[in-house]
TrEMBL record:
Catalytic residues as annotated in Swiss-Prot or TrEMBL: C35
Pfam families the record matches: PTS_EIIB
Every PTS EIIB type-1 domain range: 13-95
Organism annotation: Cellulomonas soli
Annotated protein name in UniProt: PTS EIIB type-1 domain-containing protein
Length: 96
């Protein structure tokens, strides 16, 4: 069974790491939250994020920009990926 937030055979850690890289790294994340379907990121520099590359990742349904947020909808929900992202941001000393 796949972890929540990933498609079958996926890995929440690998997906979170790739998302973080494609949005400009931990230093570009101002705030991280989630709802029932999406991981929501407020970025310091929106232009540093590659929305199309994030949208193309396995396990990602779509990417939406709304309300000053980059919202990443994930197959299976956001909880596992959000938890990994939050830990990566804490490890880097970035806000969560």
């Amino acid at each position: 069974m796949a972890e929540p937030g990933t498609e079958a055979g996926g890995d929440a850690s690998a997906l979170a790491d790739r998302v973080l890289e494609l949005v400009g790294g931990p230093g570009n994340v101002e705030r991280l939250t989630h709802c029932w379907a999406r991981v929501r990121l407020v970025l310091h520099d929106d232009a540093a994020a590659d929305d199309d590359a994030v949208a193309a990742l396995p396990g990602v349904i779509m990417v939406v920009r709304q309300g000053g947020q980059l919202q990443v909808a994930l197959k299976g929900g956001p909880l596992a990926v959000h938890a990994v992202l939050a830990q990566r941001l804490r490890d880097a000393g970035a806000p969560t």
